[in-house]
Amino acid sequence: MKRHLISAADLSRADALLILDTAEELAGLADRPIKKLPTLRGRTVVNLFYEDSTRTRISFEAAAKRLSADVINFSAKGSSVAKGESLKDTALTLEAMGADAVVIRHGASGAAHRLAGWVRGSVLNAGDGTHEHPTQALLDAFTIRRRLASGARGAGLDGLRVTIVGDVLHSRVARSNVLLLSTLGAEVTLAAPPTLLPHAVASWPCAVSYDLDSELPKSDVVMMLRVQQERMTAAYFPSVREYSRRYGLDVARMARLPEHAIVMHPGPMNRGVEIAAEVADSVRSTIVEQVANGVTTRMAVLYLLLGGTEFPATEVPATEVPAVAR
Amino acid sequence: MCAARNPVAGRDGLAVLDAEEIRRALTRIAHEILERTHGGDGVILLGIPTRGVPLARRLAERIGEFEGLKVPCGSLDVTMHRDDLRLHPARALGRTDLPPGGVDGKTVVLVDDVLYSGRTVRAALDALNDLGRPRAVQLAVLVDRGHRELPIRADYVGKNLPTSQREVVHVQLTEVDAQDSVTISDDGRQP
User: Fold this and answer.
1) Residue A22: which of B88, B92, B96 has the nearest Cβ?
2) In angstroms, rounded to a whole number, what is the distance separating the alpha carbons of residues B145 and B17?
């Protein structure tokens, strides 16, 4: 494993399987009376959140606490960022406080990568702009493996067909998932209107379709993406109703899926836009499971990055450009 | 290497136990567990991964053969409780698998292949502490090679093997390594 987790492209198949296998062993912890391990006692994890987040921040906080790390939560609102402090100055402050790991969410793509050059501890990308969100991809892979590939140690996702639907253009979840799931052997198809696909999508390791209905009968997994209205600066589709008609997952569409197929959503959901309420609450939906798996998967990542020997201070931070550039 | 300063020099690669001797040692330990726990009532066997787990399973089988008693058997991973985590890169985790009913009120027999510094057993006691409150905890090992760094001893020992700290004791079991043997070497290379 590398020292930071910035991009899903940083993970080899062996790295990704090590994380999933570790998460599998840690999953038993949730059923025990004492849900805590002493492993990261005395280490400090800083949650540096420049964007709003419910599940990711709480998930990282729960994961760090279950490993006995000290957690410092930092949100841009109410901090010196509001007074105009730069990311670098904030990073140096955290550095001076002795953070062993910084979990960063930032509105600018590449923020985590920049931060990794400034701090000594490990940097975990919890979402940078429209670029990547690697721990979300890991928890999604973990959920898929448990549901469809028996969760066995060392098993990949070979041959499973995953269809990622919707606002790929603004989605860091989609990019990380395409990279990670293809590393693990899954066949990924993006189903979206042409306006919501990035220009460079042809270089991604996946197929592209504009027609959701033709993809559904051959999908093992359907992953719905949130329509990110807050990032939309132009008219990408005529109306929300029309988008929902063509790319929303409703009961009729769900019926076209194979018997065993599961429905995923990274949250937060726009019920009635990309996913109907009946679908979100159905037995095929893994949405609540994904949240629980998020804590387990993030524990695995924190353990593997912080649990062993400190990385040598001389090691230069990863500077290579991710395989899929924006 | 000077023979006078190293009393055990010259046994590099020596087989300490062969398959037959391992079988006999486990048979004896199984009998001793039955004796010491008055018939094995309320006993559960927890193997410490990797090689403690098949050893625990074999002991449970023996006890079943002798007394027709089904002793619950599981595994207890101690990685997250080790005191030397910071000395190595992060290790892959083993499996913790408790028999149904847990450890509360039971006599837990921890099973491992080699007892050396005692640090693994200390970690196991900590791990056990988070899982419940056993009535008693005992320790069974296939080989006790000495050099304890903590006040820990085994209740059941397959073979006491005086060693020098430079030597490496290597246990192989068919479930993991395709053969049963215990060997000793000077430099850690495998037989």
Assistant:
1) B92
2) 13
- What residue type is assigned to position B111 of the chain? V
Residues (pLDDT < 70) of chain A are 151, 311-326
Which pTM does this prediction carry?
0.91
Out of B85, B93, B95, name the one closest to residue A308 (CB). B85
- Residue B84 CA to residue B149 CA, distance in Å, equals 13
For chain B, say whether A1 makes contact (Cβ under 8 Å).
yes
User: Which of A25, A34, A305 has its CB closest to that of B93?
Assistant: A25
Of the candidates A184, A297, A25, A156, the one whose C-alpha atom is nearest the C-alpha of residue B92 is: A25
Order the strands of the A161-165 sheet from edge to edge. A207-209, A187-191, A161-165, A221-224, A262-264
Chain A contacts in chain B segment 95-154 (CB below 8 A)? 95-96, 126, 130-132
> Residue B161 in contact with residue B178, Cβ under 8 Å?
no
Contact call for residues A153 and A20 (beta carbons, < 8 A): no
Confidence of residue B190 (pLDDT cuts 50, 70, 90): low
Give A218's DSSP letter.
G
For the segment(s) B14-84+95-178, the CATH number from 3.30.465.10, 3.40.50.2020, 3.40.1010.10, 3.40.30.10 is 3.40.50.2020
* CA angle (A116, A296, A285) in 5-degree steps: 110
**Confidence check on the interface: ipTM exceeds 0.90, yes or no:** no
Within 8 A of A303 by CB-CB distance, chain B residues are 80, 90
Q: Which helix or strand (DSSP H or E) is residue A190 part of?
A: strand A187-191
Residue A221 has phi, psi (to 5 degrees) of -135, 135
Cβ-Cβ contacts under 8 Å, B126 against chain A? 38
Chain A neighbors of B89, CB-CB under 8 A: 308-309
Q: What CATH number is associated with residue A101? A: 3.40.50.1370
